[in-house]
Every structure is written in structure tokens, then in C-alpha cells.
Amino acid sequence: MLAHWLAIFFTFIAYASGASISEAELHDNTVSDNDILDASHSLPDLIHMDAVPSDWKTSGALLLEEGRLRFTPEASSQSSIWHNTGYQITDSFTMEWTFRSVNFIGKSEGGLAFWLVDEKSVGGNSLFGGPDAFDGIQILVDSNGPVGSSIRGVMNDGSEKLTEQNIYDHSFGYCLSAYQDTTIPTTIRLSYDRKNNNLLKLQVDNRVCFQTRQIQFPNKAKMIMGITAKNDANKESFEVLKIHTHNGLTKEVTIPNVNPMEQPRLVTKIINKDTGKEDVVETDFMKMKGLASRVDNYELYKKLDKIEGKILANDISVVNAKLVGILENQASQLRKLEHLSTTLDIIIASMGKEGAVNTESFKDFFAMNDKLEQLLQDQAKVREATKKSMENGGHSVSVDEIVKRLLIWILPLIFIVLVMAYYTFRIRQDIVKVKLL
């Protein structure tokens, strides 16, 4: 009995300590965004700067005024800013840019581009103010594409020169964005996680624009960060308010995807020549691109794309890893508890006769139990006899007399039971002391 209660007690202690250890481990693993901020590759506080730091190289019409970098301060202008040293890519990174476009809305040949390219790619300015044959990734913000104002990702290995006309055919992902002529800035966040099967994700104002696992950056490769922009013959002003670079994943990146950006939809207006009725029908982008020439392959591609999207949209690998850690910790605590229980059994067995219960001490208690059982049987007989007498209309012993007789027996028995309970309690206390010794 003692071993049983001790086992329950230590089980509670082990469970409580295991839960607290697991929570502590999760807390220790939590790193703030400021802890992983790469200050040398960031411009987080432009409002307090009088000039661009020497770590960055600027060109063109770029202006720093009122806490913002103005890339196109006048019509038909362009400019750029590039970091002087390469950023080394390890297992993960997060890059955030906050920008806005003011003074113009509509289709324009201008655009704002964010770059992460090989060192040899820096130098040209023919592609939205940047290089046309780059080796790396470009995030392009413009309104001249087939779907209007959008944010898209473009990859190139440096073997092909891209132009501002064919760049839309080389994008691997994009989403709609109403960024033009608004006083509210837009924040885009590019993140990469090598340990999560090379997950590359772009978020716009904390909403997923696109993500893929088909792109892998070379390990420990040094790549140059930059921003370029150009505008058309209009007053569209591209402005950057903040640049953040983190050597890891920020908290916003690890949140599961629940709020994706709106994706482009192509529609066709059909007018009935007889009735004049107009209908708007959504046209599949794949068909517009001629990828549906073979129905079987096209349908298969659509299904695979849908499955991949659902898998990526419910990416909870980070949460799963933490749960696995908690389960492993609980298993370790259970193994310790089993070892403790085995040790207690060995200690109790080694106590021998000293720890055995003396059943002779309970002899009077057992006798009292027999008397109580006999009393209950006599009471049942009396109750049965009384019942029969009342049914036959006869006269028998009154109820009051029966109660008096029962009290004569019960009161001494109650006293004896109390005495026996007291001695039983004292005996158990002595047994516990013997076992502990």
C-alpha cells in the first residue's frame, strides 16, 4: 500500500517537472527578432540619418529626405542602392522592405526591384535600374504586367539577358497588389529556410504572396543586396522607408499560412450578338498560356498544383518539432519514474519481517466484525417477525421495545469500534515508522 501511494506521488512530481521543463525549453528556444538582426545589412532608422551609411553605394537620382529613400524624385528618373559587401547565406534568412508609391496610379513602364544576386551581377542598369543578366533572385513591383499592378519573383542564372518586356514570362510566382498612390506603406518579407526543405516564401503585409521549395541557395554563398527603381514619363515616386535583414526566421515567418494574397484571375467578356446579353467568364491562365493542349497532362498538372498549395498552406513543421521535443521529454520522465518504482519495490522487499503487518493486532477487530454481522442478522429476523405479526393482526413486541434492545447492543459496540479504530491507527503509525527506518 505504501509503495502504491509513493508511486502515485512521484508520478505527479515527475509529470509536473516534465511539463515545466518542456515549457522552459520552448521559452529558451524563443529568440527575439532583434537578436538576429544584421545591423550592417539593414537601414531600420532612416528618420535619424542625414546621409546613407558608407556600407551602401548609391547612384542616380536617389535622395534621402524625411526618413525615406526617394528613388524617382522626378519624371523619367532612375537610381539604385547596393551594399558594398556580400551577405552570407547559411541555413535561413529574412529580408524585409517597407516601401510606397505616390503621385501616380495606372499602367506604367516604371517599377521598383529588390535584388539578391551574385557579386558578379552588379553593374548594369537596363532592367528597372538593375542588371539584365543577373544570377540570383529579383522581387519586382510594377504595374505594366498582363494582370496590372503586382509583386512577382524572378529567378535567373545569368545565362540569359532579360528585358522589361519579357521578364513576365520568367517569373515563378506573383500576386496582385494595389500599391500605387497610397499613403499607407507596403511591407514585403522574403524568407528562406534550408532546414524546411528549402522553403522560399514572400509575404506582403503578413499575407502570403507566393512560396516554393523548388529554389535552393548555395550554402554559405555571398550575395549582394540591392534596390533599384525607375519611372516612366510621370511623377510616380518610389520610396523605401525601411530595410531589415535577419540572420534567421522572424516570428511572423513561422506563423502558419492562413491568409493568402489574392491571385490574378483572367476573365473574358462574351456578348450574345442576337440578344446583346453580356456574360463574364473566368478564363484559366493555363489555357491562355497554351499549356492545356493535352487534356490529360493539363488536368494532372492542376491537381498536383492544388495538392502542393494545400500542403504549403498548412505548413506546421515548426510546431510539430516542438511537440516532438515535448513527447521525448515526457518519455524520459516516465523512464525515470519506472526506475524509481522498481527501487522502492526492492527497498520494501528487503525490509523483510520488520515491515510485515502483524495480523494478531487485528484479532479483536475481526471478532467485533463478526458480532456486528450477527447483530445485523438478528435485526433482520426481528424485522421479519414484526412484519408477519402485523400482517396476522397479532400482538408482538412493540417498536419502542425493539429500539431499546438495539440501543443496549449498539452503544457498547460503537464504543468498542471507536477504541479499535484508535488502536488500529496507532498500529499503522508504528508500521510506517518501522518501514521508514
From TrEMBL:
It comes from the Eukaryota. SUPFAM superfamilies: Concanavalin A-like lectins/glucanases (SSF49899). Keywords: Membrane, Signal, Transmembrane, Transmembrane helix. The chain crosses the membrane at residues 406-425. The keyword Transmembrane helix applies. InterPro entries: ConA-like_dom_sf, Emp46/Emp47, EMP46/EMP47_N, Intracellular_Lectin-GPT, Lectin_leg. Disulfide bonds join 175-209. GO terms for biological process: endoplasmic reticulum to Golgi vesicle-mediated transport. GO terms for cellular component: COPII-coated ER to Golgi transport vesicle; endoplasmic reticulum membrane; endoplasmic reticulum-Golgi intermediate compartment; Golgi membrane. GO terms for molecular function: D-mannose binding. Residues 33-248 form the L-type lectin-like domain. It is found in: Membrane. It is a single-pass type I membrane protein. It holds the Pfam family Lectin_leg-like. Residues 1-18 form the signal peptide. This is WGS project CCBQ000000000 data, contig 00099.
